[in-house]
C-alpha cells in the first residue's frame, strides 16, 4: 500500500460507512425483488421516510464488536452500488460470516470481488480472524461462481432451508480460511 492510500479503496470500489444521503440508493435496491431475495428475504414496502431514518441510524451506529455494515461505492461513478456486512463474528473461535449485495445493473463489473477482497484483507489481516463463512442460495449461480473464483470452498448444503416465492430453497455453505485467502490474495507490504 502506498502512503496516503486508503486501506478501504480497491481497484473498482471504496468501502465506506453508510451516510444519511444514501437512503435513496437503498430504497432503489429494495425496489428490485430479485435483489431483496438474493441478499435476504422479501420485505413489505417501506416509506421513503423509513429509508431516510434507517440510513440516518446506520450513519451514527457504532459497530457491534466486529459486526458492521458498509456501503460499496463505485470508484468510476461515485454511486453506491451495494452493501456488505459482517455478522456472527466470534473472536474466540476466529470465525465470522458475511454477506454482500450488488444491485442488478451494477453486477458483473468486478465490484463484488473487489469489495470482498477488501473486507477479507481487513478481517484476516487486521482483526486476526481465521475463517470466513457465507451462505448462498443454491439457485444463485453468479454468487456461487464468484465465491469459487475468490477461493471459497463448498462445505455443505442445508436442504430446504429458506422459504420464499412459494417454496423452500437450499442454502449452500461456503468457507475460506486466512491461509487460503493469503495464498490467492497476498497481504502486501505496509
From TrEMBL:
Residues covered by the N-acetyltransferase domain: 13-179
Q: Which PROSITE patterns match?
A: GNAT
Protein name in the entry = GNAT family protein
Answer yes or no on keyword Secreted. Answer: no
Q: Which Enzyme Commission numbers does its entry carry?
A: 2.-.-.-
Q: Which UniProt keywords apply?
A: Transferase
Provide the GO MF annotations for this entry: transferase activity
Please give the InterPro entries that the UniProt record associates with this protein: Acyl_CoA_acyltransferase (IPR016181), GNAT_dom (IPR000182), Ribosomal_N-acetyltransferase (IPR051908)
Segments traversing the membrane: none
> Which Pfam families has this protein been placed in?
Acetyltransf_3
Amino acid at each position: 500500500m502506498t502512503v496516503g492510500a486508503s486501506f478501504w479503496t480497491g481497484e473498482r470500489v471504496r468501502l465506506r460507512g453508510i451516510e444519511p444521503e444514501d437512503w435513496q440508493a437503498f430504497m432503489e435496491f429494495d425496489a428490485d425483488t430479485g435483489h431483496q431475495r438474493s441478499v435476504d428475504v422479501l420485505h413489505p414496502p417501506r416509506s421513503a421516510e423509513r429509508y431516510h431514518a434507517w440510513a440516518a441510524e446506520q450513519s451514527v451506529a457504532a459497530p457491534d464488536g466486529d459486526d458492521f455494515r458498509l456501503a460499496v461505492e463505485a470508484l468510476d461513478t461515485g454511486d453506491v452500488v451495494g452493501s456488505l456486512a459482517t455478522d456472527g463474528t466470534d473472536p474466540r473461535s476466529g470465525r465470522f460470516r458475511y454477506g454482500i449485495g450488488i444491485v442488478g445493473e451494477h453486477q458483473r463489473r468486478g465490484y463484488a470481488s473487489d469489495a470482498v477482497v477488501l473486507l477479507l484483507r481487513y478481517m484476516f489481516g487486521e482483526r486476526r480472524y481465521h475463517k470466513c463463512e457465507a451462505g448462498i442460495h443454491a439457485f444463485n449461480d453468479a454468487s456461487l461462481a464468484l465465491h469459487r473464483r475468490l477461493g471459497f470452498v463448498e462445505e455443505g448444503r442445508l436442504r430446504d432451508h429458506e422459504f420464499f416465492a412459494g417454496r423452500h430453497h437450499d442454502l449452500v455453505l461456503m468457507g475460506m480460511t486466512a491461509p487460503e485467502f493469503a495464498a490467492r490474495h497476498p497481504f502486501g507490504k505496509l
